[in-house]
Amino acid sequence: MQQSEIRKLTEADFPGFAHIAIQAFPANKENTLEYKEKLAGNLLRTQQKSGNIEFYGLFREGKLLGGMRLHSFELNLFGKIVPAGGVGLVAVDLLHKKEKVAKELIEFFIRHFKEKGMSVTLLYPFSPGFYKKMGYGYGTKMNQYQIKPGSFPGADSKEGLTMLTETDGNAIRECYNRFAKKTHGMILKTAYDIEKIFENPENRVAGFFSGSELKGYIVFGFEQVDKKNFLRNHLVVRELIYETPKALSGLAVFLNTQADQIERVIFNTQDDALEYMLGDPANSSNHLIPSVFHETNTSGVGLMYRVSLPENISTHFSGRHFNHVSTCFTMRIHDSFLLEEPSFVCLKLEDGMLGEGKEEEAEFEIELDGSDMSSLLMGAVNARKLYQFGRMKVSDPSYLGLIEKAFQTDPKPVCMTPF
Question: 297: which strand partners?
Fold first, then answer.
C-alpha cells in the first residue's frame, strides 16, 4: 500500500475535500460547481473562525483521498470540565473505498488527541458496528417523541416567555453553559456555536426569563407534513435547555399554545421519562406493543465514546464518585484496533474516590473490550448487564454486586451537541 500523509487542510485543499464530501454524503447536496465552491468556502470559514474546529486530509502521492473534521471540546466529565476530542464528516473518495482510508483517518484522530493528553474522544457513527470494532462504546440512547401540542401542560399566563434574537446570544450561551456545567456528558458552547444557531434561517428561538436572567430556551423549526397542504406542519425541537422546573413549565406552555396550527411536536431527547410530563405521550404511529402498550417513542444508539488512555483513568475520571465503594481491582482491557496485547490497569476505590492501586492488593479482576470499558466508565451501561451479556468477565463473580454498585450512575451522560 502507498504511504499516506495526513495533515491539516490548507485553503487550496478545500475544493477537493468539498467534492469528496458531496460524493460521500449526496443527500441534500447539489453536484454542481457552484455548490462545491460554496461548500468549500463554508468549510474554510469554519476552520478560520470557529477556534476549535480543524479539517485534516489523507494524501497518497500528493492526491487527497479522504478527510475529516476534528473538534476540540470542553466536556463535563462527572462534574469536571475536561478537554475532549470529536470527529465528524469522515469522507472517502468513491474511487478509493476499501483502501483503509477511513481506518487511517480514525487512527490519526485517536492519536492526535491522545498526544494532547485527552482521554476521551467521541463521534456520531455512520455505522455503529464499524466504530465499535475501533473501541468506541455506545452512549445514552436518543428517543424521538411525536407529541400533540395540547399534551404539554398549559397555563393561563405566558409571563417570562419571549422570542429571542442574535442580540440575546450571550444570554443563550450563558444559560446553556450553566446547564452544561451541572450535567455529565454535556459539551460547552462557544460563541461560534451561538452564531451558527442564528445563521440558519429555519431556526426560531423562544426563551423564558426569570427577572432579567434567561433560565431556559427552545430552538425550533417547522416541517411540512403534506407537500400538497402547506397548512399541515410539525414543530421540530432542535434544542431545549431549562435550568429550573419553572423554566420548563414556561417553555411547555409555549408548545401547548401551538395546538391550533401544529399537528405534532417532534422532540429528540435522551430523557426517556418524558411521558410523566405529558397528558398523552402516545406518538402518531398508533402502534400497540403486546399486550397493550402504546408506542410513545422510537429510540436509537448514536453518540459513541472511546477512553484511549486507560493508564490515566484514575486521573481523568477523578470527578466521578463510585458510590462510597471501597475495594481494589485490576482491569484487563482488549483494544484490537490499536494494540495487539491487552492493556492492564490497577485501580483503588476508597469510599468511592478513585486512585491508583497496587496489583498485590487487588481483590478481583475485570476483563472486557475497550468499547465496553468506555461505556462503563462514562456511565452509559450497567455493569451487571455487561456481565449477563457475556461482554465482561469477573474473576470472582461474588463481587458482581459490589461492581454494579460502584459503577452505577444516574443520570447517564447527556449530549446535545451535533457535530
Answer: 145
- Alpha-carbon span 369 to 356, nearest angstrom: 21
- Range list of β-strands (E), 170-244: 204-210, 213-226, 229-242
**CATH number of the domain bearing residue 353:** 3.30.1050.10
Beta strands 53-60 and 63-77, pairing class: antiparallel
What are the grid coordinates assigned to 25, written together? 454524503
| pTM for the predicted model, two decimal places | 0.93
Asked if 93 and 22 sit in the same domain, the reply is yes
Give the C-alpha separation, 18 to 121, whole Å.
25
Residue 174 pLDDT class (50, 70, 90 cuts): very high
Domain range for 368: 308-407
pLDDT digits 0-9 by tens, 101-128: 999 999 999 999 999 999 999 999 999 9
Q: Do 288 and 326 belong together in one domain?
A: no
Residue 272 included in any domain? yes
My answer on whether 181 and 219 are in the same domain is yes
116, 83 in Cβ contact below 8 A? yes
In this structure, which amino acid lies at residue 10? T
